[in-house]
């Protein structure tokens, strides 16, 4: 473990008792969270108006805002960050889908590239539902999906964040992908 990782682990442990520790945590995690957000945003539909910086800021506020959390370790923190990013993107997809079907009752002209494909929105919401079911079935598989897909971590980074071997991550990732495919195809 590097000095920065060890320092982050100590600050996360202290953050549950000292809200001021969050001011020291942000500089340590910001670049990594922004990298993860950029990776996640690269997979989004063209024309999305949310930027990686805004996604990081909103996710960080959700992580530290309003309640004290006892962070177990870096994996717990980064897993929560990935989950926050996922929830933000799902909430945006739901809002957009409801607006597209008259939720705001205002007529708005969109440029062709600004309108999300209906099938893409439906697929994202189905994927989210399947991931929620996977989490109930096997939390470790769901954690790997969140870290790999939503946070954009590599196998090695995921293994380090979860404190497991890369081989375990590969096994969980392969199983999770198969389970999600079957679940989504059946749904």
Mean pLDDT: 77
**Into which percentage range does the β-strand content fall?**
under 5%
Helix fraction by DSSP (H/I, runs of at least 4): over 70%
SS content category? mainly alpha
**SS summary, helix count:** 8
The sequence of SSEs as H and E is HHHHHHHH
Unreliable sequence segments: 104-116
Over the alpha carbons, how many angstroms does the gyration radius reach?
18 Å
User: What is the number of strand segments?
Assistant: 0
How does this model look, in words?
By secondary structure, the protein is an all-alpha fold. The chain has one domain. Helix content is 73%, strand content 0%. The protein is built from eight helices and no strands. It has helices spanning 3-15, 21-42, 52-64, 74-100, 118-137, 139-150, 155-162, 166-186. Helix 4 (74-100) packs across helix 6. The longest helix is centred in the middle third of the chain and has 27 residues, at 74-100. It is globular, with a radius of gyration of 18 Å. It starts with a helix and ends with a helix.
